[in-house]
Each structure stands twice: as structure tokens, then as C-alpha cells.
Amino acid sequence: MRLNPTVALSCLVAFAGCSQTGGAPSSLPVAATFDEQLRANVSYKIVYGFKGAPDGDTPNGNLIYTAGAFYGTTTTGGGSDLGTLFKLLPSGKETLLFSFAGGPGGNSPTSGVIALGGSFYGTTSDVAFAVTAAGKATTLHAFGSGKDGATPVLAPMHVLGGKLYGATQLGGSKRCNSGCGTIFDLTTGGTENVVYPFQGGHDGFVPLGSAIAVKDMLYGTTSYGGANNGGTVFKMSGSGTKTILYSFKGGSSDGERPSGDLIQFGGVLYGTTGFGGKNDLGTVFALGTSKETVLHAFAGGADGASPNGSLTEVSDVLYGTTSGGGKGYGTIFSVTRSGKEQVLYAFRGGSDGSQPLGGLVNVNGTLYGTTSRGGPANKGTVFSIKP
After folding, report:
1. For the residues of 183-227, what is the DSSP string, one character each?
2. CATH topology of domain 34-386
3. How many other CB atoms are there within 10 angstroms of residue 138's CB atom?
């Protein structure tokens, strides 16, 4: 079985059958075509280029924007070269709030963070952490194996009913050799609870995006399993009652292996898959009440390939990134709800950045994101683009 382009896993499955029922929010748009002309009127610039230890190095997760500043993590760099939590002003002034060193907070964060009550919450490969605005870190929960989750996913946690909700790639049910993955909740005081252990097979397994909160329900994806072993979209109550909304088919007509967070607007769920579609290079999809539509199948070459990060909606248009395609170093793209796609920027792989793996954040019509490599020191960047 193929692996998600950003995460290598070894989870061999003893399949378990589960029922597939349910529906999702409202009516769907209609897929259209790819416009391969680059937008000539976009404004792209580097806001900050990471320098490597003792500065940050290799940002992978999503940025957040709060109180006039961006916050995010780097996987390496910092005082111990085990990653950082950074603050960045739109002017380009960067401050390291915390350098991970393997003690409180763990090491090598690969996800973004969320802000809640004056602190920042996130996950490393084995712990959930909190870091105060003053830079003091606390390990909230250390993930293990067995019934507990293991290997939290590459996405920030979400809040529902005063609790943090996230997902782990592994752990939970032993129907998969290393566990099929879990949805967990976590209090800000550090009490963790497995809300749902995935069972493999038709139930789905290996969630690679966090479950987003929409009103009183959680919506998320699994990268494997479902009726066709191409991954699933599910909804779940905060107490763990779960319904599969859609099983991906893969092949030339459908996506396969969803990874980033879903988004919801206009009563429709939107997301990306890393594989599937006409060229098996990933898709942007929409899921309504009773039907899933592939809005765009990436073609490689001048078009993008292998979307990884979550989508962002601005004025009824979806924006995202691919880690490949364009000039070979990834792209920034837009897709309308009717399915018209445009490549807004193709990374050149030098000082402008290379291989974006996170999503985009909208600040007053300007989009900000990260590249994992490239920039002046080839340690990654924070960039802005104004469509």
C-alpha cells in the first residue's frame, strides 16, 4: 500500500469490517477544468527566511495568526536543534518563544499550534504540550502504545466543549499491528481520554488530519481503510459516536489518501487527497449531503502535484499548496467552488522557498504560509501572497 507523501508509516492491517452509513452537509458545486496560465497580478514575497540552529529550521505545520502576530513551529533548529516555537510579526521580526530539547514539551514538533487562554498547545511525535507566552513549556500528556494513542498527527488540535480534540496515527485498537489510530480529547490540565479507537477495515485507520469542530460535531478523515481502502471522511460526536460519510475509491475518477484537515463552508466539506485522480497526483474534493465531487485532479508538470496542507477559503475561493509540480518545487493554487483551478505561484527552489507542506492563513486578504526548505539559508521560509 502507498504511503502519504509527507508521512512514512508501517501499519500492516488485519482488516475488520464496519458498516458505512450517514451523510454530510448540503449541496455540491460542479467540477470544471484547469487553467494552466499563472496569475500575472499576484504579489509574492518572503516575510522571513529561517537560518537554522540556534534559529528555527524546517517549518512544516500550519501558521496561526492572533493578536497581530504569527505563531508556528519548526521541526529542527533552536538551541538543541530539536525544533522551535516561534513568533513572527508581519514586518518580518522573528522571536523564538521556545526551543524544544526533549524535556518538557518533547522534541521535533511537526504540527502547528493553537492559542487558548494565553498559551499555545500542540503536539510533537510523542507528547501533547503547552507553552506560555513567556516561553514556559509543560508536557500535558505523553502518548504511549497499547490502548492509548501513539504518534499524534501532523495537524493542530481543535476545541469542542472546552476540550482539545486531536488524532493519533497509531495506537488504539490492535487490529492493526501498531494500532489503527485514535481520536482523543485533552483538558488544558493534561487529562487525556481516547474518544474513539479506529478499528481498521471499513471503519478506516491512520488519521492524518485532525478532526475539525463544526457546531457540536467533529469531522475528519482517515488515510486508509473504508469500503475501498482509499481512506474515509467521518463525523463524530464529542463522546465518540462515529459515522462514515464517504469512502474514497481512488483510481482515475476519485481521490485517495486524504491527509490535511477538512474545512467547511456553505454547508459543504472540502479537502485534499495526496493520491488518486486522473494522474494519481492528488485531488481537491467537495463532499455534500449525498455526493462527493472531485473539483480538481492535479496533473503534475506546470500544474501542482501532491497537496498536503489544509485548504483556506477566501471570498468563496479555495486556496492551498502542493509539495510538487510547478517548476518541481511545489505551488500555491486556487480552486473555485465550480472547479476552476489556477496556479498562483510556482516555487523556484532557491531563495523564494521550496516544498510547502502546511496550509495557508488569511489576514485581510493576504495569504501567509511556510515552505519547508529554500529561502536565503535553505532552512525554510514564511511567505506572503496577495492574489
Report:
1. EEEE-TTS-EEEEEE--SGGG-B---SPPEEETTEEEEEESB-ST
2. Neuraminidase (2.120.10)
3. 17
Residue 171, phi then psi, degrees to nearest 5: 80, 180
Are the C-beta atoms of 232 and 204 separated by less than 8 Å? yes
What would the grid cell of residue 228 be? 475501498
As a whole number of angstroms, the distance between CA 95 and CA 163 comes to 29
The residue type found at 54 is P
Burial class from Cβ neighbours inside 10 Å (0-12, 13-18, 19+) for residue 127 reads buried
In angstroms, rounded to a whole number, what is the distance separating the alpha carbons of residues 119 and 273? Answer: 32
How far is it, in rounded angstroms, from Cα 208 to Cα 45? 30
Instruction: Report how far residue 298's alpha carbon sits from residue 341's, in angstroms, rounded to the nearest whole number.
Output: 9
* Domain ranges across the chain: 34-386
Query: Using one digit for the tens of pLDDT, what is the confidence trace for 92-136?
Result: 999 999 999 988 888 999 889 999 999 999 999 889 999 999 999
Q: What is the distance between the alpha carbons of residues 141 and 15, in angstroms, rounded to a whole number?
A: 30
Enter the C-alpha cell of residue 39.
496569475
Q: What are phi and psi of 88, to 5 degrees?
A: -140, 125
pTM: 0.89
